[in-house]
Amino acid sequence: MTRPLGVGVIGCGYWGPNLVRNFAWTEGSRVVAVADAQLPRAEALATRYGIPNIYTDAADLIADPDVELVVVATPARTHYPLTLAAIESGRHVLVMKPMTTNAHDAADLVERADARGVMLAVDHTFVYSAAVRQMREMVAAGDLGDIYYIDSVRINLGVFQSDVNVIWDLGPHDISIIDYILGGQEPTEVAAVGAAHAGSLRENVAYVTLRYGPQLLAHVHVNWLAPAKIRRTIVGGSRQMVVYDDMQPSEKLQVYDRGVTIAPWDDPEQVYEQLVSYRTGDMRAPRVGNTEALAVEAEELVACIRNGGTPIADGRAGLRMVRILAAAEQSMRHGSHPIELVNGRALTPLVMDVPTNIATKADGANTATG
Amino acid sequence: MTRPLGVGVIGCGYWGPNLVRNFAWTEGSRVVAVADAQLPRAEALATRYGIPNIYTDAADLIADPDVELVVVATPARTHYPLTLAAIESGRHVLVMKPMTTNAHDAADLVERADARGVMLAVDHTFVYSAAVRQMREMVAAGDLGDIYYIDSVRINLGVFQSDVNVIWDLGPHDISIIDYILGGQEPTEVAAVGAAHAGSLRENVAYVTLRYGPQLLAHVHVNWLAPAKIRRTIVGGSRQMVVYDDMQPSEKLQVYDRGVTIAPWDDPEQVYEQLVSYRTGDMRAPRVGNTEALAVEAEELVACIRNGGTPIADGRAGLRMVRILAAAEQSMRHGSHPIELVNGRALTPLVMDVPTNIATKADGANTATG
Amino acid sequence: MTRPLGVGVIGCGYWGPNLVRNFAWTEGSRVVAVADAQLPRAEALATRYGIPNIYTDAADLIADPDVELVVVATPARTHYPLTLAAIESGRHVLVMKPMTTNAHDAADLVERADARGVMLAVDHTFVYSAAVRQMREMVAAGDLGDIYYIDSVRINLGVFQSDVNVIWDLGPHDISIIDYILGGQEPTEVAAVGAAHAGSLRENVAYVTLRYGPQLLAHVHVNWLAPAKIRRTIVGGSRQMVVYDDMQPSEKLQVYDRGVTIAPWDDPEQVYEQLVSYRTGDMRAPRVGNTEALAVEAEELVACIRNGGTPIADGRAGLRMVRILAAAEQSMRHGSHPIELVNGRALTPLVMDVPTNIATKADGANTATG
Amino acid sequence: MTRPLGVGVIGCGYWGPNLVRNFAWTEGSRVVAVADAQLPRAEALATRYGIPNIYTDAADLIADPDVELVVVATPARTHYPLTLAAIESGRHVLVMKPMTTNAHDAADLVERADARGVMLAVDHTFVYSAAVRQMREMVAAGDLGDIYYIDSVRINLGVFQSDVNVIWDLGPHDISIIDYILGGQEPTEVAAVGAAHAGSLRENVAYVTLRYGPQLLAHVHVNWLAPAKIRRTIVGGSRQMVVYDDMQPSEKLQVYDRGVTIAPWDDPEQVYEQLVSYRTGDMRAPRVGNTEALAVEAEELVACIRNGGTPIADGRAGLRMVRILAAAEQSMRHGSHPIELVNGRALTPLVMDVPTNIATKADGANTATG
Asked: Is the pLDDT of residue D163 over 90?
């Protein structure tokens, strides 16, 4: 039996405790170190999960010889330097989404990880959920036929992140689901529109449109100012359609047989009948497992490191994501005009790839790098 | 006691029977004539509601001396000539949405009706529903504070209209709700993106974005290819937020006290608490009446004709609507770039205001004008 | 082509207009007469549907030679005398539920109708709904396996009927669904418990338990004092289970594959897994038609009269219903002790079969019989 | 600062880990010992939460001098001997529901705990949930007016407990909610009906009726064979009504203004209006906190032990519960006839208070007492 993988987690704020819990409770790994600029947060976690090493400086955690996998759970703008440092120290890395705040940095991390032969993974948690995996399998098996569109809504009353806007914060959930369902296909066009309200300088309501070639349309609505909590992705296909409603306690996936018929206006009986009875097929809600996505992710990463595979959400998925987010940002900064992409890259050289609202943020104290 | 208003309905297809029923059963009006190119359709309605005069030619109905109000319930491209003929004959007119297929015709109808002193109304049915009226009242009373955004979704599996795309068909419902809630304010920018699937030449999935000045964002998702039936409008304000869910049998309106707080990243306890408990205020579902909107509309129109008032959805509301639809169409035809509007009109003279997919449609046989 | 069946409707109150509309609009029948002690109510209906003959005395309608089918839509205690008179005049009869207020009268009507060779039908509307018919077919085809239980809930804030309690008013809906699903099987035991609140003398909250042999348990919750509107019947079987949720706009039927496993307490892993993931099979929502049940019923009755068949809800179904209601009433009047039935009849001779709260009611003025 | 309270947990099966986690993470307590006849289960928990002492024999845990509070999380039939032993050793005790399997044992435990001056608490978890507490406060403050009825449904596909039937297993949740809402009032009558299906010897579908005086009716539906998961309690009052829907992710409590009016049958307009618009007041969904009920419970128990208070769910609440369960069992065993209670006790001396289906169960190996 192999020794458990040594995991070090940088950042003990909102999401950090969930990461610690899952790596602590996954067979095959144990959390050997935590780091946070705010010592009490790190200490509380260490006590609860019996973690031996506690740091206030992320560099010390990265240098800890017991740490084989560094988990970077700090604010977005620190992802690049911390991940880079960990890679250069020969550590495997799991970095929170978004992987970086610009595409250049993301591409650099992918190259460096390849060069050093370490695993680079990004925490696109939803691709590890059972419902999303089932959707991916249905699409891959051709059950849905041609994909017509993907519509994804993730809205609720949320706390405003001072670090990023709602596209960079919530968008990765929906976009990673779309990316995974479509097998990593790159969009050909990205547009976004948003508004910043309630005294925030960053957009808290936004819509992102993705085109994949002339036909396939994907659309994301992310919103921190919505009173109702909705988390729903619809995948419309020529043969079947799927609704993934994450707020449903049990029937999270609903698969509809397609029932569309083109009725000419001059056959009013048929028109009437179909408008009233808007669905002509059955609906099926397949059983969906309920293992915590983060637990599945932790297990996959440990297995990849031990056995050499590539995780679903690897650095390349992280790079694709950042390119899309950066293009959406650019569109939103420039009158919401669509941005064309070729092989995932913007055609016209972007004057500034780094979103100004992130780059210009004054350095805060609330990171492990201090 | 006055003699009931004489109503003539042109077009006995899908929506016509509902119009006939409501004008037949409204006190103060009676249906004296119906017209349809397909005689049996007109006859069936006439038998059911005891309507004396039946025509196959719309012109004959318009000329019928018993007809005081002409209801135009034919395909969109026939709205302009039929409405024009009725106005010129000195009839009051209720025309289905969209009022016309281009803004020029819409403006012309408004002018002509004014000149002839007849009432011109457009069937924006939803502004007569109790839920929408209550929302309008809440907004007008300032209950919601500053309006941040309006998000409206109207999707289901529908029959494809061969006459118009989904924006021209379903869009007027949402846009008329937005227009009414905002008190007839004109948008400053319109953009749209869509896709035509399942063998249709017209878009059956589309997103329309409306900007009202720098801050207020409105967004509409209309879709004939969605497996789930969703009809929901969210109005987000600085003080309260309202969800109007038309699929709910009873609690159609849900009013949320606002509970947004800007939490800095470095106060993780607050971040965590708020993300988990995403709402910090109460929700209230006020009682909503359930009188059929069309019945309220019929009563208002009869009262306006008798007493000289202006209906909520008058010709000017119809014109604003057509301008928005035409701008959305133009955006969708030109790479989904946003179209700027000043006083409701596009800044750059539009080469073609008439949407090609409507204007170029070969003349069908299925209209009363035959 | 045959002459349309002449229908006469007695009682133009709450439900009468729906009956008139459906018989007026059904091919094969026309409404030739209406009767109501309150003349304006009858006149209003007659005007709307073009009905030639109007009566204030039910006896005159029954005697009208154009009337072939008498529809009795008056308060419960008048059902027996009016139905009897119609049968004796050789008319076919459709009587509202409950058919009578005691089992003796119900049995008498069945006998008399047989003797006179006329059709006796009772308005158990729900057995004509598409959802209930599909459930019946599933059960008859053995799809559900052995039926374990039926649980039916019909609650909302309702107006209190001064004529009958909630069991006699709402109960027939659920009990007729149960009766139909079970193919007319007679219960072996009936018990009921209830409470009268809000100043009413009649129970407005009640629970009825039906046993069909030692194994099959059926339970009905009817309630006029519930804030939420629930109309749901669950049929649990050994192979599949069905939920019929009448408040759902589209997925009214949900069919679940069974997934029950008996896990011993000493296998905690399995216990935990199953408690968390409480369903181990798929759910399927078959397409359900949406024709109005009353329209289907009207068509069936016309066809039965013309062609000689027996309607689903015939006098015998009405008799079974009244026996169950009377037994429930008896149980509720006597400490809620269960009442045993043999062949649908109470074992011990009931001192009073007629519920006192109905029999003792002073005669009101609000019936067509005046 | 005081030393944390030493907690020992007997039984590491399904619910045990949740108890351990909450006492481990509550400030003021720490878990010093766990016991389970199956050593690996105890060891796994001990490792995860850093618990120093592990036992296979419950007696050793009770004797452990570090243990001040014994938590009994074993099958129902072992509750009495283990709790008794703990009390006699001067330990405070939290025992899972049902406290015992008969009322005699329950009364004995209450007496003994009083005599020894230790705290006896029973895990009626739901009375510690925020939603139930808010309902209790509303009732106590008179917001609901007179309580008319309480209707509680708790159904889903569950694993069958081999130890107890569904009334003893799920019933305590609903009955403890009812007991708490009514301020510990004793029922005057209890009846139950049930059925055992799917090869089980114990009832897995059951209905329990409780009467509190002549007016107030409470009813519980518990079911392990239901395909849909429903957890809903309705409290109907003369002024307001509350729906507590535990499956709702956010609006768990819905408070309805009452809108019942007694309409005479002879005012059909009013009848019709009210039947269609079944609710005449507003609904309000107050904000409900989402702290885990078990965490609140753990904190309260620690505080009671430290400061000398009485927990909400004390031994007397446990005794009231067992009396109700035993009466329900007796009713179910004797033809479902209602059992009268005076001061919570059955009037006629019960031949057997101990339910046979529990008492006769062969001794299993799966307890810590081995």
From this structure: no
- Nearest residue, CB atoms, A282 vs list C276, C277, C286: C286
Which burial class, exposed, middle or buried, applies to D273 when counting CB atoms under 10 A from its CB (0-12, 13-18, 19+)? middle
Opening angle at CA A178, ends A177 and A182, nearest 5: 115
User: B127-291+322-359 architecture in CATH?
Assistant: 2-Layer Sandwich (3.30)
Query: Looking at chain D, how many residues does it have?
Result: 370
- The CATH number that domain C5-126+293-321 falls under is 3.40.50.720
- Superfamily of domain D127-290+322-357, CATH level 4: Dihydrodipicolinate Reductase; domain 2 (3.30.360.10)
Q: Which of C25, C229, C250 sits opposite B250 (nearest CB)?
A: C229
Alpha helices for A225-314 (secondary structure H): 268-276, 293-307
Other chains touching C, judged by 3 or more CB pairs under 8 Å: A, B, D
Residue of chain C minimizing CA distance to A259 = C287
Q: Which of B251-265, C157-171, D169-183 is least confident?
A: B251-265
A285 to chain C: which residues are within 8 Å by CB? 254, 282-285
DSSP D285: E
What are the tens digits of pLDDT across the range B45-81?
A: 999 999 999 999 999 999 999 999 999 999 999 999 9
Separation in Å, CA of B227 to nearest CA in chain A? 6
Compute the mean pLDDT over every residue in chain B, rounded to the nearest whole number: 87
Which segments of A26-78 does DSSP mark as H helices, in order? 39-49, 58-63
Q: Residue B308's CB: how many other CB atoms inside 10 A? A: 8
Among the partner residues B48, B249, B250, nearest to C25 by beta-carbon distance: B48
Strands B120-123 and B147-157: unpaired
- What is the CATH number that goes with domain A127-291+322-329? 3.30.360.10
Rg of chain A, C-alpha, whole Å: 22
Count helices and strands (H / E) in chain A.
Answer: 12, 16
Q: Please give the DSSP secondary-structure letter assigned to residue A314.
A: B
Total CB pairs under 8 A between chain C and D: 214
Lowest mean pLDDT among A314-318, A357-361, B345-349: A357-361
| CATH number of the B5-124+293-314 domain | 3.40.50.720
> What is the ipTM, given to two decimal places?
0.89
Q: pLDDT tens digits for D41-67?
A: 999 999 999 999 999 999 999 999 999
Domain boundaries, chain A: 5-125+293-314, 127-291+322-329
CB contact under 8 A, D249 and A249: yes
D309 is written with which tokens?
Answer: 């208070």
Is the pLDDT score of C74 beyond 90?
A: yes
**The two structure tokens encoding residue D150:** 């309480």
Best B22, B48, B246 member to test C by mutation, with max C CBs in 10 Å, is: B48
- Residue B362 pLDDT level (bands cut at 50, 70, 90): very low
Amino acid code (one letter) for D26:
T
Which pLDDT belongs to residue A280? 55
pLDDT band per the 50, 70, 90 thresholds, residue B368: very low
Residue pairs between chains A and D whose CB atoms are closer than 8 Å: 11
Asked if residues C9 and C94 have their Cβ atoms less than 8 Å apart, the reply is no
CB contact under 8 A, A229 and D250: yes
Q: Does domain A5-125+293-314 have CATH number 3.40.50.720?
A: yes
pLDDT in tens, C133-143: 999 999 999 99
Residue spans of alpha helices (H) in chain D:
16-25, 39-49, 58-63, 79-88, 103-116, 130-140, 166-169, 171-181, 268-276, 293-307, 315-333, 356-359
Question: Which chains have 3 or more CB–CB distances shorter than 8 Å to chain B?
Answer: A, C, D
CATH for the stretch C127-291+327-359: 3.30.360.10
Q: How far is CA C195 from the centre of its chain?
A: 22
